[in-house]
Specification:
The structure holds 2 protein chains of 2 kinds.
Chain A lengths: L3 H10 L4 E7 L5 H14 L3 E5 L10 H12 L4 H12 L4 E4 L2 H7 L1 H10 L4 E3 L9 H10 L2 E6 L5 H10 L4 E4 L1 E2 L15 E2 L2 H11 L5 E4 L5 H10 L3 E4 L1 H8 L4 H16 L6
Parallel strand pairs in A: 1-2, 1-10, 2-3, 3-4, 4-5, 5-6, 6-9, 9-10
Antiparallel strand pairs in A: 7-8
Helix pairs in contact in A: 2-12, 5-6, 6-7, 8-9, 10-12, 11-12
Chain B lengths: L3 E2 L2 E5 L5 H16 L1 H14 L6 E3 L1 H7 L3 E6 L9 H14 L4 E6 L3 H12 L4 E6 H6 L1 H9 L3 E5 L6 H15 L3 E3 L10 H9 L1 H14 L5 E5 L4 H7 L8 E9 L10 H4 L1 E5 L1 E6 L24 H9 L2 E7 H15 L5 H16 L5 E6 L7 H5 L6
Parallel strand pairs in B: 4-14, 5-6, 5-8, 6-7, 9-10, 9-14, 10-13
Antiparallel strand pairs in B: 1-2, 2-12, 3-4, 11-12
Classes of the chains: A alpha/beta, B alpha/beta.
The structure holds pyridoxal-5'-phosphate.
The site of pyridoxal-5'-phosphate has 21 residues of chain B, from helix 5, helix 11 and helix 15.
Amino acid sequence: MQHLGEVLARRKAAGEASLLVYAMAGSVPEERFLSVVDALSEAGVTGVEIGFPFSDPMAEGPVIQRAASEALRGGYHWADLQRLLRACAERLPCAVMTYLNPIVQRGEARAVEEIAAAGGSALILPDLPVEALRPFREARRVHRVDTVLLASPATQEDRLATLVRKSEGFLYLVSRFGTTGLGGGDTPSTRGREGDLAPLLQRAHAIRPKLPVLVGFGVRTEDDVLRHRRAGADGVIVGSAVQALLSDGRPVAEVVERVRPLVEALHAPLLPA
Amino acid sequence: MPEWYGPYGGAYVPETLVPALRELEVAWRSSRRDRAFRSELERLSHDWGGRPTPLYFAENLTREVGGAEIYLKREDLLHGGAHKFNNALGQGLLAKRLGKARLIAETGAGQHGVATAMVGAKLALPTEVYMGAVDMGRQRANVQRMRLLGAQVRSVEHGARTLKEAINEAFRDWITNVQTTYYLLGSAVGPHPFPSMVCDFQSVIGREILRQSRARWGAPPDLALACVGGGSNAIGTFHPLLRTSTKLLGVEAGGSGGPTAVGSASLTRGRPGVLQGMRTYLLQDAEGQVLETDSISAGLDYAGVGPEHAFLKDSGRVEYTAATDTEALSAFHALARTEGILPALEPCHAIAEAIRRAREMPKDARIVVTLSGRGDKDLEVVGAHAAPR
Ligand SMILES: Cc1ncc(COP(=O)(O)O)c(C=O)c1O
């Protein structure tokens, strides 16, 4: 079982970029989920972020919202997540991404302990502010589950410094003003605008040179990967682009075809834009 | 301005919103001390809004009930037909000050949407209102009013398609357009500074009650009641009365009362959790998934509640209870019959409870109920139920 934060740090030190894939637990049958993870692992993906569905996912666009409500409609539970996580963690380093309330109701310490027991090594909560990190700190010391913080193009300098110092495992840099998803939507809530990430990435690296910074939200093409790498990202996170295929019932091979060029773009030499 | 009410409140939001919430807090702190801002707010509240609203002795209702005197704080007479005006105007002026180019809002019953649309028109700010598809169906008159006032109404089609989903969608819009857009949240809910700011703007209700009751009988009321959805008319009623000896009572929606229905009574039937930026009481399952609620009144049909109410419940200063759909409907008819007033279904929950309490109190005791809105929007819903005999 590999620790996600350690793998990312090792790759960063070796000058290799990383790619995480996000998928919603319970949005497809477990067997299919695992065969996708197997195929992704073979294709060279670095790790998996397993989404645990929440009824009110404030930061998600339509694709992940739909995946979450499908999972909940199917009666997906925390116990199911633990089983899935156990199986996934044998294949790739794993993080759990959800919202604060399911974790609070489980009890922060107990939730983290259970994630660790199932082989997960990071927890990502988009509605957890850095000010409320305390209950997770202690749990991390005991169970080695990193609490990954998010930063955004809206984040101001002093706040970024705090986030960089307090984030564990890596820093999740949101690429744009907006929710997760493919962008280019035609309603005001899906029309996200990408931020200027290079200055943020530079600052983050200057403050804590060893902390990997991964860019997510709206990543779907090789160009996206290359652009974020050029801006200074240590890797990217692909979510909705993959989830859309899973939710549509596309074959595993198609998911891999979608991800493979992105993995290749991790290794492509960086030419100036 | 408090961010925390005991363990409740806070600002549990995606990082993209953090700077906007800071900016809002700073602007609000300076505005509330600013004489020009306050006199503009007062002038428009008075001339455009119709403040102060009367404290009305419901003599016939009192006689029929045969107990304590029942007084109504007439927020239904405010421009737009509900207390929502107080908050929409205050925040609209703040949005203008911040130089924002666009207003967004959520709405349940449509009253906050109407108030925001009015303010958008008055202040020349383009306005978009998110509203659950179910609510658009049951509060059609308000959808039409918003449109006539120039606002765009955006139908929210996921989940239970009511207020909670409308708030989620408004937050998603704000996350996306935060640099240009002001989110005019309509109740004392959400992340800091919204709950305390909304409480500030709504506290005019309680201040007037205090002034009017002192002028009338020389003391605060013995009991004050308000309905609790997100809790803005209730906190506005209660806040100025917290330091008096007035007993305070918040009334939530008990819903249809069916065996599996949870109603919308987050304080009476829920437990603490985190939703939509705040730590507060929620109706949720064992794993923290938020439940679908039910209420005859779209404005109370919500699984959460403002964090200050959560604190006031725990501290025991305010009592919270619930009234069912049926009880609210009979209060509607009682008020129509005895006083010639068609109330909104939301405050009917408080009126139902006031009637119950009045019977148990001495005749010289005085009860004030905040009549938070008028009933024009609910004619179809009320019409669909048979009037009680
Ligand atoms: C007339 C009226 N009263 C009460 C409410 C409930 O909101 P709050 O609890 O914030 O006062 C609404 C909400 O739409 C309303 O329209």
